[in-house]
Design brief:
Structural class: alpha+beta
Number of helices: 8
Distance between the termini: 9 Å
Strand content: 15-25%
Keywords: Hydrolase
Shape: globular
Helix content: 25-40%
Protein name: Serine hydrolase
Order of helices and strands: HEEHEEHHHEEHHEEEH
CATH superfamily: DD-peptidase/beta-lactamase superfamily
CATH topology: Beta-lactamase
Number of domains: 1
Pfam families: Beta-lactamase2
Radius of gyration: 17 Å
GO molecular function: hydrolase activity
CATH class: Alpha Beta
Low-confidence stretches: none
Length: about 260
């Protein structure tokens, strides 16, 4: 019995009572048989979109448009929310590699906007299309609610992005290794990685806005073996639902791991 059957059986026996609306996509990177639930529903990506932005920037590095050491201006008008750059008004530029690290490891929104400005929306759109995304758009900077356009994604698209990264179809091997190292240093570990046994590795990126809690990840040992994306939105009670949603997402991460056999 393969990964998909084991995971589907596990989920059928539990049917987690999520406090919001669930989008779920997972598959074994070798068997490639997906387990899906609400996987194509378009939702706000929150900070999960930062993985796509990182890959887009690293594609620019591969193409010779810039290097990881290039100094990139940090917008004077800093996005609030997660991160530290909005507290550091004296920092007006940073190396692209450092901005990518801040963007992923502590989910810094101002760093993300600096990377978006450097890469450009058209390049991010091309990257999304080339990675097979059908519901993912990045049309405005983070926290910029006054700007036109919208940012959207789906659980299937988020799984596709990480799949392409893990299998070195998004980037060449050296930049793939770099991206995975950055993801492995993610500091928010209260969702998909939270219940994994010692020694199990998880390369993840969370996302969080009002009434939504997300996490997308690769799970494995010395290498990624499975991809999983969990996007939960329409949380009715923001404060009470946060812990419950995170606990349910953590349970799904453990079930994905056990399904690897």
């Amino acid at each position: 019995m393969g990964f998909a059957r084991r995971l589907a059986d596990s989920l059928a026996g539990v049917r987690p009572d999520f406090p919001g609306r669930l989008g779920f996509a997972a598959w074994d990177l070798r068997e490639r048989v997906p387990v899906l639930s609400g996987a194509d529903r378009e939702v706000h990506p929150a900070s999960t979109i930062k993985v796509l932005v990182m890959i887009s920037a690293l594609r620019g590095v591969h193409g010779g448009l810039f290097t990881l050491d290039d100094q990139v201006p940090v917008p004077a008008e800093r996005a609030g929310g997660s991160g530290v750059l909005h507290e550091l008004s004296g920092v007006d530029r940073l190396a692209l590699g450092d901005l990518i690290t801040l963007m992923i490891v502590i989910s810094d929104n101002a760093a993300t906007n600096a990377v978006i400005d450097a890469v450009g929306f058209p390049a991010i759109a091309r990257c999304a299309a080339e990675l097979g995304c059908t519901a993912t758009r990045v049309e405005r900077r983070l926290m910029d609610v006054r700007a036109p356009g919208r940012n959207t994604t789906s659980a299937r698209d988020q799984a596709r992005i990480l799949d392409r990264l893990a299998t070195a179809r998004a980037l060449p091997p050296d930049l793939t290794a770099h991206a995975l190292r950055v993801l492995s240093r993610q500091q928010v570990r209260d969702r998909l990685p939270a219940l994994l046994p010692a020694g199990v590795r998880c390369w993840n990126k969370t996302g969080e806005i009002a009434h939504s809690r997300h996490d997308v990840a690769l799970i494995g040992d010395h290498r990624p073996r499975a991809v999983v994306a969990v996007l939960v939105d329409e949380l009715a009670d923001e404060r009470a639902a946060h812990r419950l949603a995170c606990d349910r997402i953590a349970d799904l991460g453990l079930r994905v791991f056990h399904a690897l056999g």
